[in-house]
Design a protein that fits this description.
The complex is a heterodimer of chains A (about 230) and B (about 280). With about 230 residues, chain A is mostly helical. Chain A is built from nine helices and no strands. In chain B, helix 3 runs antiparallel to helix 9. Chain B has a five-stranded mixed β-sheet, sandwiched between helices. Chain B has a three-stranded parallel β-sheet with strand order 5-1-6. Classes of the chains: A mainly alpha (about 230), B alpha/beta (about 280). The interface between A and B is medium-sized, with 28 and 37 residues.
């Protein structure tokens, strides 16, 4: 039986894991914000079916959903060097360019799913409400903001929660381009001590707790939205 | 199922999993690996599949290289068949500990810290660790790396060595060596830092090998050893003796000539690597 030695988690090893946990949470937060922003934008625009934008939105959603997240991370990280001049790369890379590339890639990847969730949610709201709002002179923004959005959030919250959970798990892929998140730190500990099992157990627990916490928050939020609805009615 | 029951079910299945893993490891450690291997008629060897010259998948889809030939030579002399198991820097040790492979012949550098977890054979190869940069780069020595960025791979021991030799340099790790090399070509890092032999391999496979130079003094590095399960001296003895036989009767030179020596892609004279094996009478 492999004997576990937790002493590697005291001192340097433990600090590494805490640092890594911070980076993981930062990465998850920035890419989640981006995924939600882009996802809502493309979801709403797709639902509105504005003619000239239709193929662009379709292409965006299908591209972001149907390419593996790891490939997207590598793609955005390395392809940036083709677009940006070399001096810009040299200036950017010391400010965590890999972090930005990973956030962007994960944000784009998950925004495709968010867009489809949003579009599905909007389709579930009777179209008559939208037309009625138009008829009494609401602008598009007013219609979306005060009539559709409150109902939409109730419908899509459970699916958005599971999307957020899968985003947190995907942040571990960022180690491929050197983002020092928690899985990277576990690997680092493993390389020098070969005691990766202990570090991985801690990392597993961290992901489990984080994801369960997100799921918990999601269901609390859902309950809150439901209660509001009853009060409004 | 309510929440409490769910938690209980989770913890039960987790414990069962841990116990199963424990039993397998315990079973694997009973008796010497040598007896197991002889009984099985096959030795399972962990080899790399992405390190040119040492362990790489060739055009025909076969894993070949210096490490693979050394392992096959050992298997031949033990009179058993060989089964190659692809490993990476991150998986090789856990696979050995769990008894899923019998030895690691996969560019594994011998460090004391690593020796706490597994055992090592005597060294069968040595290579220093250096920097590779673009020919046009201003970096010529380790001192020039101050404030610069070096790329290497997750799972490479070189990170700490660079930190010691040049604390003012930043290290960024990538999934594998090819990615770190690509990052250097693209200017995302200034240098690739790795074992000389790995750098030579990366360069050999580049479209313009002459555009890249290996520079600087060696950061250290150690013998490549064969990784063996902890506390199995019977198995380690036979591996050590076999390695020495391979060195003595010239088989080592033949394998070296096939993969690393002059005329190969890596094209390194034996004098450049400056290695000779420890021999016991």
């Amino acid at each position: 039986m492999i004997k576990l030695d937790w002493s590697i988690l005291l001192g340097d090893g433990g600090e590494r894991l805490i640092e890594g946990a911070k980076v993981t949470l930062q990465l998850a937060a920035t890419s989640l914000v981006l995924a939600l922003a882009l996802g809502f934008l493309f979801g709403v625009v797709r639902w509105l079916q504005i003619r000239p934008l239709k193929p662009i939105c379709w292409l965006y959603v299908e591209f972001s959903r149907n390419t593996p997240p790891l490939v997207q991370i590598l793609f955005w990280y390395f392809s940036a060097t083709v677009v940006l001049p070399e001096w810009a790369i040299v200036a950017l890379r010391d400010y965590g360019f890999q972090f930005v590339a990973a956030s962007f890639a994960l944000g784009v990847y998950h925004s495709g799913f968010v867009a489809e969730i949003v579009r599905g949610g909007l389709n579930a709201i009777p179209r008559g409400q939208y037309e009625a709002a138009q008829a009494i002179g609401f602008t598009i923004l007013q219609t979306v903001g005060s009539i559709l959005m409150p109902q939409l959030l109730r419908i899509v919250m459970p699916m958005l929660t599971s999307e957020a959970v899968s985003l947190v798990k995907n942040t571990s892929l960022a180690l491929a381009i050197g983002v020092t998140e928690i899985t990277y730190q576990a690997r680092y500990i493993d390389v020098y001590t070969f005691r990766g099992v202990e570090a991985l157990l801690v990392v597993t627990a961290f992901y489990l707790v984080t994801c369960l916490a997100i799921a918990g928050c999601g269901s609390l939020l859902q309950r809150f939205l439901q209660r509001n609805r009853r009060m409004a009615a | 199922m309510n929440r409490r029951n769910l938690l209980k079910a989770l913890s039960v299945s987790a414990t069962a999993g841990a116990m199963a893993a424990g039993t397998r490891a315990a079973y694997a450690q009973a008796g010497s690996v040598l007896d197991e291997v002889k009984k099985r008629g096959t030795v399972r060897v962990g080899v790399r599949t992405e390190v040119p010259g040492f362990g790489i998948v060739d055009d025909a889809g076969k894993t070949v290289g210096f490490d693979v030939d050394i392992a096959s030579e050992i298997a031949n002399r033990l009179g058993v068949k060989i089964e190659l198991v692809p490993v990476t820097a991150a998986t090789r040790v856990p696979l050995l500990q769990q008894g899923r492979i019998d030895m690691i012949v996969a560019t594994l550098t011998h460090y004391r810290k690593r020796d706490e977890v597994i055992d090592f054979s005597i060294g069968y190869f040595w290579t220093g660790q250096k920097l590779m940069v673009k020919k046009t780069s201003s970096i010529k020595t380790l001192a020039d790396m101050a404030g610069k960025r070096a790329g290497t791979t997750v799972g490479a021991g070189v990170v700490e060595n660079l930190k010691r030799a040049q604390p003012a340099a930043t290290t960024q790790t990538f999934e594998g060596y090819p990615e770190s090399f690509l990052a250097m070509q693209r200017g995302l890092v200034d240098a690739v830092v790795a074992d000389v032999i790995i750098l030579a391999g990366l360069r050999a496979n580049a479209p313009n090998p002459t555009d890249y130079v290996i520079v600087g003094e060696s950061l250290g590095g150690g013998d490549y050893g064969i990784g063996l399960r902890e506390n199995d001296s019977k198995w380690r003895d036979i591996i050590n003796f076999t390695l020495q036989d391979i060195w003595r009767d010239g088989a080592w030179d033949k394998i070296y000539g096939r993969w690393i020596g002059p005329g190969t892609k890596l094209n390194l004279e034996k004098s450049e690597i400056n290695f000779s094996m420890v021999l016991w009478d």
